[in-house]
Amino acid sequence: MKEISLNILDVAKNSVKAGAALTTITLNETEETLTLIIGDNGCGMSEETVKNVCDPFYTTRTTRKVGLGIPLLKLSAEQTGGSFEIISRSQEDFPDDHGTTVTAVFYKNHIDFTPLGDVVFSIVTLIQGDPDVDFLYTHNMPQGTVSLDTRELRAQLGDISLAEFEIIAWISEYLKEQYAELNA
Amino acid sequence: MKSLAELQAIKEKMQNKVALREGSGEMRVVVGMATCGIAAGARPVLSAFVEEVANNNLAGKVTVSQTGCIGICQFEPVVEVYEADKEKVTYVKMTAEKAKRVVEEHIKGGKVVAEYTFAAHNA
Predict the structure, then answer these.
(1) Domain total for chain A?
(2) What's the CATH number where A89 sits?
(3) What is the mean predicted confidence (pLDDT) over A48-68?
(4) Of A46, A48, B65, B98, which residue is the least packed, with the fewest Cβ within 10 Å?
(5) CA of A159: how far to CAs of A23, A55, B8, B25, in Å?
(6) Residue A165 sits in which domain range?
(7) Is the interface score ipTM higher than 0.85?
(8) In a domain, B94, yes or no
């Protein structure tokens, strides 16, 4: 993947496929590190599956949702000297509190750090693809925070789909304005 | 600065428009957005379709959606066009530029862009 934002788009789709009503994408940035946390309240995975998801050759038809996405994200974090972790609670074992959280830490000054890239583009693409589930996006930087909560948009829009072009365009502008404000 | 309250105005404007569209949607553009598609550049391809369909006022007739791996990863980005009573058309190795041409010639004009199809690449 040429940009971390593409890994975000790819891996966040696993959350949607796991039936998550809410997928939380958080970026915590310092001068030296970038920490990506993708969390969801989807069906979760068994301990056995979690052990295997980082193996690119593990994929079988029943775990088709895993594939190469996770190994690629893990690689891009670890090649910067960073770390990668998946914690999951399956719906079967934890009926009241289930879901998966993926955490990747990148060292930004490492020569093998892939740029974050156009994360706004990825967020709007996620929303366009699955307009009926919710996303909470937060990017914490030393100079401030950019955020978007689709539940707040939905409260304003009622039954108008978030996938409508006018809405997608508005979301994109809304996020870009927040970044421009912080970087001014 | 944009505020969430602006969405109210957009909503009112759109309600009429969306109501007009109901019952239509005879054409579907599906973009492969699995790991293979994303890595090969599907994100700008999808966005080009969404934008061109909107700019050409085709949203009533055409829906643009995302799907997983179509199974021909080496030909990604892959786009499938479905139309009632017609055979599915599979476009391969797509770019945003090619997407514009597909909207213009195929979606609007009804003429398949043969050189971008899987059949042309696989011949």
Answers:
(1) 1
(2) 3.30.565.10
(3) 71
(4) A48
(5) 20, 41, 12, 18
(6) 4-183
(7) yes
(8) yes
Domains: count for chain B: 1
**Secondary structure string (H, E, C) spanning chain B:** CCCCCHHHHHHHHHHHHHHHHCCCCCEEEEEECCHHHHHHCHHHHHHHHHHHHHHCCCCCCEEEEEECCCCCHHHCCCEEEEECCCCCEEECCCCHHHHHHHHHHHHHCCCCCHHHEHHHHCC
Give residue A91's pLDDT band: very low, low, confident or very high (50, 70, 90).
very high
Distance CA A67, CA B33 (A): 13
How many CA atoms, within 13 angstroms, populate the side-chain half-sphere of residue B10? 23
Q: Provide the shortest C-alpha distance from residue B47 to chain A (in Å).
A: 8
| Angle at alpha carbon of residue A99, lines to A4 and B31, rounded to 5° | 50
| Cα of A105 to nearest chain B Cα, Å | 20
Q: Which of A5-9, A51-55, A180-184, B98-102 has the lowest mean pLDDT?
A: A51-55
Q: Which two tokens stand for residue B28?
A: 């579907």
Cis peptide before A142 (omega within 30 of 0): no
Residues of A in contact with B38 (CB under 8 A): 1, 6, 9-10
Q: Give me the residue from A10, A125, A181 closest to B35, CB to CB.
A: A10
Q: Which domain holds residue B106?
A: 22-121
B4 touches chain A (CB under 8 A): yes
Rounded to whole angstroms, how far apart are CA atoms A90 and A69?
A: 20
B47: in domain: yes
